[in-house]
């Protein structure tokens, strides 16, 4: 095979894995959860669920994720990724299909926990990007994956109802979606080439043979001993935690503090996701074409601006101000939300070989931060007596995301002096 043919073959393989990864991000990882936000009141009324049962069901997926996300990550570096993604997608599809079958609380709750368990293994989507793409293109691909999640959120809130109406109800919606998820799982086996950690584009300076000999616990030790990797994790915990707090509680805060209808409040809240959808597509392309400096400046700067805008928006008391601030802040997520995980996967001590373990640690810390922030919000509301003011105060934690990236920049400079590697991210 000559070099031209080899390049074409590799490009074709990248296109296939990218398409399947994007479909996984939309249909498997995002739409089942975003559509639940729309269907949950209907499910509650149909099954006669109590308030406690309804809230428990809405958090069951997160609980399942928290149980398995750490272990899923560390196993990812030792198991064939295409088989792992196939099994996880099929298992998630069966769990979603199960939503349409059961008519009582307990078995239905179990299907949500099962979905969360499967969802924790689908973080292999990001690992796949690290196996197939180099540093130049990884930021863009991670951004597209996250952008598909934002699109699924918009579709789930705005199109789930009409689609369910055409299909004959929410149960048929989840039957069809479950089958689609199983099909996507099978596609991981049929269309994706096996690519081991040894072949990863991001094996920058690690010794492949040494890492392959490492046990799961040794891989974990290397990640936890990396100050730079931990800075990336904590940056995401601060900034990403604020994003999830914004998504989860803005509607409730506006209904309670502003006294507006739920539909209006939900629209205001969704403007951040709408802005994000465009940001995830546009900003990485512009950065790749025009930005020649250290990307940390862009990412950290966007975190500072987004956080400030969200604080202004939620505390303004003015719908127009909130819409503008949320939309612009969301747009800048194309830098801010994508940066920390991409920077971590590019670290020489992580690379493609330990990317799964690093992602497991990363997502565990991130989800733990989300749970703690949402739990803390209740106490903050009691303390200040106003929902929007409470969220505005909690949003300040978003500045911590930029702080940890500036610490990362200092660590990069120190490492560059020791090893001669570039200090730019």
What does this structure look like?
It is a single chain. The protein is mainly α and 425 residues long. It folds into two domains: 1-196, Up-down Bundle (Growth Hormone, Chain: A), CATH 1.20.1250; 202-425, MFS general substrate transporter like domains (Growth Hormone, Chain: A). It is 82% helix and 0% strand. It has 21 helices and no strands. The protein has helices at 3-28, 31-47, 51-58, 60-76, 81-99, 105-121, 124-132, 135-158, 160-167, 170-191, 208-213, 216-224, 227-258, 262-290, 295-316, 319-331, 333-336, 339-346, 355-384, 387-395, 399-419. Helix 1 (3-28) packs antiparallel against helix 7. The protein is globular and about 60 Å long.
Number of strands: 0
How many DSSP H or I helices? 21
CATH structural class of the largest domain: Mainly Alpha
Overall pLDDT: 86
Distance between the termini: 35 Å
- The number of distinct structural domains comes to 2
Q: Report the portion of residues in β strands.
A: under 5%
Q: pLDDT under 50 segments (min length 5)?
A: 203-209
Q: From N to C, what is the helix and strand string?
A: HHHHHHHHHHHHHHHHHHHHH
Shape: globular
| CATH level 3 topology of the largest domain | Growth Hormone, Chain: A
SS content category: mainly alpha
Within CATH, the superfamily of the largest domain carries the name MFS general substrate transporter like domains
Would you identify the CATH architecture of the largest domain? Up-down Bundle
Radius of gyration: 21 Å
